[in-house]
Input
Amino acid sequence: MAAGDWLLRYGRSSRDELRAAVSAYPGRRGRGKLAVAVECLDAASESPKESEVRTLLLLAGLPAPEVNPSIRDPLGRFVARVDLFFRVFGEVLEYHGDHHRTDRSQWRRDRTREAELESLGLHVTEITNSDVERPRALVERTARNLRRRGWSGELRLSPYFPTDKAETRGATPS
Output
């Protein structure tokens, strides 16, 4: 996903070109996954983990979030640029790599930024790699947060939805 987002973002390819490339090999193994992936791409994505989180949400049937939008206060002043935003539901998702924890000044900026966003009535969920390794729990939690803010949809996991990495690590080969 991240590679496809990058191709779109930097104009190296268009979605139509990527669709055509997938269609050119109808019997190719993995074609179904590639066709689904092309439809999940977003040129606004700026990081591989952002792409991964957004794709998990889409593969679970959640509404498509805005990617990297700017949030402004009622007077139009800039407050923050967020990773993923379900504007209609006031739900913000922020992917935090480990430096958000280990860099003291980054951690402080994050706390202030989160407080500013929440003062506007938004709910902020921080996501880490541990969450991404448990995709079903991540999308179920996100769905619960969206439901309490008015979303009435249901999860519809795509056949391409990944299994939890924690489960596959502990599995023994048969």
User: Anything to note?
Assistant: The chain has two domains: 1-43, 46-162.
